[in-house]
Design brief:
With 234 residues, this protein is α/β, with parallel strands linked by helices. 50% of the residues lie in helices and 14% in strands. The chain contains twelve helices and seven strands. It has helices at 5-8, 21-24, 29-36, 52-63, 77-94, 111-123, 136-139, 142-145, 158-171, 186-192, 196-208, 219-233, and strands at 42-45, 67-71, 100-104, 127-132, 149-152, 179-182, 214-217. Helix 10 (186-192) crosses helix 11 (196-208).
């Protein structure tokens, strides 16, 4: 079973990462940290589908650090402690660099769950990278926030999203075999709400719903196919 388009198109290296030049451009803050191989604990704050998880993965890959991940939706204090223990063991056995612990939706962690991270961050057993769509000043406890650098990821521009669609139709293993023309993109951009993951998955849905190798993307086609999909769910 093939992965969704958004997953297939996930950047494999930092140079493929779209937008956020203030962080990952040549003189970007995170780019400079990676060059120096000095990665502090970080909170990435930005809207859904902007690439927070991808950026955390790329930081790990570029600095050759072990990568552990938890979702705040499904993990408790026990899970946090188990992952921290595993990270400590890996660090002692295989490497001197702090492993990265990535926590998605960190704003959903309770105070006790966030408290369970403090010792490991303070002692350098892990480098924490948290992702949140909410203002961390209100959602992350002060003791943890004071140990992290907060970086804001900006919304994608219209040009960024169109570039992403063009990348999908020319570089994806499956879509590149079809003759796709992006005649109109207004409906795709509007329905996605600027969420790149949602945009790509809608784009793939529309393309796969057309029984033709020559596909012309128009606003009417997008509206028709997305409405049909919504009606089936209803």
């Amino acid at each position: 079973m093939k992965a969704p388009l958004a997953e297939r198109l996930r950047p494999k290296q930092l140079s493929d990462y779209l937008s956020q030049t203030h962080l990952i451009g040549e003189k970007g803050t995170i780019s400079q940290m990676i060059k120096r191989d000095l990665i502090p604990s970080i909170i990435l704050w930005g809207p859904p589908g902007i690439g927070k998880t991808t950026l955390a993965n790329l930081i790990s890959k570029e600095t050759k650090r072990s990568f552990f991940t938890l979702s705040a939706i499904s993990s408790g204090v026990k899970d946090v402690r188990e992952v921290i223990q595993k990270a400590k063991q890996d660090q002692g056995l295989f490497e001197q660099k702090n492993p990265i612990l990535f926590i998605d939706e960190i704003h959903r962690f309770s105070k006790s769950q966030q408290d369970s991270l403090l010792g490991a961050v303070e002692k350098g057993w892990i480098t924490l990278i948290g992702a949140t769509t909410e203002n961390p000043s209100f959602e992350v406890i002060p003791a943890l926030l004071s140990r992290c650098q907060v970086y804001v990821l900006n919304e994608f521009s219209k040009e960024d999203l169109i570039l992403l669609l063009n990348r999908a139709k020319s570089e994806d293993e499956y879509l590149s075999k079809k003759d796709i023309t992006l005649k109109e993109t207004t409906s795709l951009l509007r329905l996605s709400g600027g969420d790149a993951r949602k945009l790509l998955n809608m784009f793939e849905l529309v393309v796969n719903s057309v029984d033709d190798e020559n596909i012309i993307i128009t606003n009417d086609l997008v509206e028709e196919k997305i409405q049909q999909k919504t009606a089936r769910y209803d």
